[in-house]
TrEMBL record:
Bilayer-crossing regions: 162-183
Domain of life: Bacteria
Subcellular compartments: Cell membrane
Catalytic reactions on record: ATP + protein L-histidine = ADP + protein N-phospho-L-histidine
Keyword presence, Disulfide bond: no
Pfam families membership: HATPase_c, HisKA
Name this protein carries in UniProt: histidine kinase
Keywords: Kinase, Membrane, Phosphoprotein, Transferase, Transmembrane, Transmembrane helix, Two-component regulatory system
GO molecular function, one term: phosphorelay sensor kinase activity
Residue ranges constituting the Histidine kinase domain according to the UniProt record: 245-450
EC number: 2.7.13.3
Record's keyword annotation contains Kinase: yes
Length: 464
C-alpha cells in the first residue's frame, strides 16, 4: 500500500526528499532562532527594568526618596516597604497596589517575572535593598523597588512564529523547486539517451546516444554506452560475417556429399556402393571436423575462461617432443616461465603453430622461450617461404588459406591460426607474425603469473 503512494518518477522522489530534508532543517533552525530571539528580547527588557530599579536604589540617601529615573519603556516604578505598602512611585504607578508580590532574599536580591493584569502583560524586576542600606535608611527594615515595562509585542503574540513559519514554508518550497529544476535538467540527457536506446535495433546498430558535454557521471555513462554499442556493432558484424563464411564453407562438402549419395542411388548398377559409402564417410568426417573447429572457436570467444598457473616452458618441451620426426625442432629455453592459463588451450595453440611450421619448413623449425619485462614470449620460426607482409593479418581470419597452404594441405579448414589467436587473446595476450630473415616467424606474448619471479636463465637448447 505504501509503495503505491511513492512516486515512480525519480524527479518527483528526489524533489520530495529534498523538500522534506529542507523542511526538517529549516524547522529546526526556526525553532532555535525563535528561542534565541525570545530570550534575547526578554534579556534586553529585564536589563532595562533592572537598570532603572538599581539606579533608583542608589539615589536613595538618608531616607530621602526622590523621583526615579525612568526610560521611554520603563514607566512603572514603585518603592515598597517590608509591610507591602507603596512608599513612593512613578506618576503612572501611583495609586496602584504593589506591582508584584516577589520578595527577593538577601542572597538573591534581584528577581524577574512577567505578570498580566487588565489584559496586558508586564515584565517586572524586583530589587531588594542590601542589609547595610536597610539598616542605614530604614532601621533594618528591607525595602523593594519594582520596575516594570509593557511586554514587547514580539513576546506578547505569535507574530515571530508566523514570520518564521512563512520563512520555513518558503525555504522548503524553494528547495523543492530547485531540486525539481536541477534534477529535470540532469535527467534530460538520460531521457534523450533512453529514447535513442529505444530506437536502436539489431538491424541498425550504427546509432549512438547523445553525449552531453563535460566529464561528469552522465557524460561518462553516455561515453561508455557508445563504446558498448560500438563493440556490439563490431561483434554482430563479425558474427554475421562468420556465419556467412561458415555457411559457405559447409555448403561445399555438403553439396559433394549429396552428389555422392545421389550418384549411388541413380547409378546403382554402375557405381560401387562401398566406394560411395567410403567417400561419403570421408566427407562426413571432414564436415564433423569442420563443425568441431567452428564450435571450438565460438566457445573460446564467448565462453568463460578457467585459468590456473601453467608452466609454459614445460608445455613447450612436451609439445615439441610429441611432434613427428619428419622435420627437426630446435627448442631454446632462456627462462623458466609460468603463466595463468588453460593448459589444454595453450597446448592446442602450440600444436597448431608447430603443425604449420613443420608443414611449411624446408629443413628446420625453431622455438624460443624467453621473458620480456612482465610478458612470456614464445617464438615459433621456420625456414620456409614465409608469409607476405600484406597477408600477416589475413591468415588469422577464419577459413582464410594462402595458396601455398592450400597446396600443402588441401583438406585443411583454415581455422587453426584463427583458433590460436582467439585462445591467446582470451588469455590477455597477443599472437602475430613478425619480421624474419627467412621463413615465417610467429610470436606469442602472454602475461606472466603474479607470483612469477625472475629465475636464473637456463640457456638450454634441445633438438627433437
Amino acid at each position: 500500500m505504501f509503495s503505491r503512494l511513492v512516486p515512480r518518477s525519480i524527479r518527483w522522489r528526489f524533489s520530495l526528499a529534498t523538500a522534506a530534508l529542507a523542511l526538517i532543517a529549516c524547522l529546526g533552525s526556526a525553532i532555535t532562532l525563535d528561542t534565541l530571539i525570545r530570550d534575547r528580547v526578554k534579556d534586553l527588557a529585564f536589563r532595562d527594568t533592572q537598570r532603572v530599579a538599581t539606579h533608583w536604589l542608589g539615589q536613595i540617601r538618608h531616607s530621602e526618596v526622590g523621583q526615579p529615573s525612568m526610560t521611554s519603556r520603563v514607566t512603572l516604578v514603585q518603592l515598597v516597604d517590608s509591610d507591602g505598602r507603596v512608599v513612593a512611585a512613578s506618576p503612572r504607578a501611583q495609586g496602584r497596589p504593589p506591582l508584584s508580590d516577589l520578595r527577593p532574599s538577601d542572597k538573591d536580591r534581584i528577581q524577574h517575572e512577567t505578570r498580566c493584569w487588565s489584559g496586558r502583560c508586564f515584565m517586572i524586576t524586583a530589587a531588594r535593598t542590601s542589609p547595610q542600606e536597610s539598616a542605614e535608611l530604614w532601621h533594618g527594615r528591607p525595602h523593594i523597588v519594582y520596575a516594570a515595562m509593557p511586554q514587547p509585542a514580539l513576546l506578547a503574540d505569535r507574530r515571530l512564529e508566523v514570520i518564521l513559519g512563512f520563512g520555513v514554508l518558503g525555504a522548503t518550497l524553494l528547495a523543492g523547486w530547485a531540486a525539481w529544476v536541477l534534477v529535470g535538467r540532469t535527467l534530460r540527457s538520460v531521457e534523450a539517451m533512453r529514447a535513442r536506446f529505444a530506437e536502436i535495433s539489431l538491424s541498425d546498430l550504427g546509432s549512438r546516444v547523445p553525449q552531453p558535454p563535460g566529464h561528469d557521471e552522465i557524460a561518462r555513462l553516455a561515453e561508455s554506452a557508445n563504446d558498448a554499442l560500438f563493440r556490439l556493432q563490431q561483434a554482430v558484424r563479425q558474427q554475421r560475417h562468420f556465419a556467412s563464411v561458415v555457411s559457405h564453407e559447409l555448403r561445399t562438402p555438403l553439396a559433394g556429399l549429396r552428389a555422392q549419395l545421389e550418384e549411388a542411388l541413380l547409378y546403382a548398377q554402375q557405381v560401387d556402393p562401398h566406394a560411395s559409402i567410403r567417400d561419403a564417410l570421408a566427407t562426413t568426417q571432414r564436415l564433423q571436423s569442420l563443425i568441431d573447429e567452428v564450435a571450438t572457436l565460438t566457445r573460446i570467444r564467448t565462453g568463460p575462461q578457467v585459468r590456473e598457473p601453467t608452466n609454459l616452458t614445460e608445455l613447450v618441451r612436451q609439445e615439441a617432443e610429441s611432434r613427428p620426426m619428419n622435420m627437426p625442432i630446435t627448442v631454446r629455453i632462456r627462462d623458466d616461465l609460468v603463466v595463468p592459463g588453460n593448459h589444454l588451450q595453450l597446448e592446442e595453440v602450440l600444436a597448431n603453430l608447430l603443425v604449420n611450421a613443420q608443414r611449411h619448413a624446408r629443413s628446420k623449425v625453431e622455438i624460443v622461450v624467453e621473458r620480456s619485462t612482465d610478458m612470456a614470449v614464445v617464438t615459433v620460426a621456420d625456414d620456409g617461404a614465409g608469409i607476405p607482409s600484406e597477408d600477416r593479418e589475413t591468415v588469422f581470419q577464419p577459413f582464410v588459406r594462402l595458396p601455398e597452404g592450400r597446396d600443402r594441405d588441401p583438406k585443411g579448414s583454415g581455422l587453426g591460426l584463427a583458433i590460436s589467436r582467439a585462445i591467446v587473446q582470451a588469455h590477455h595476450g597477443s599472437l602475430s607474425v613478425e619480421d624474419s630473415a627467412q621463413g615465417a616467424r610467429l610470436v606469442i606474448r602472454l602475461p606472466l603469473h603474479d607470483s612469477e619471479t625472475a629465475d636464473e636463465p637456463s640457456a638450454a637448447d634441445a633438438t627433437w
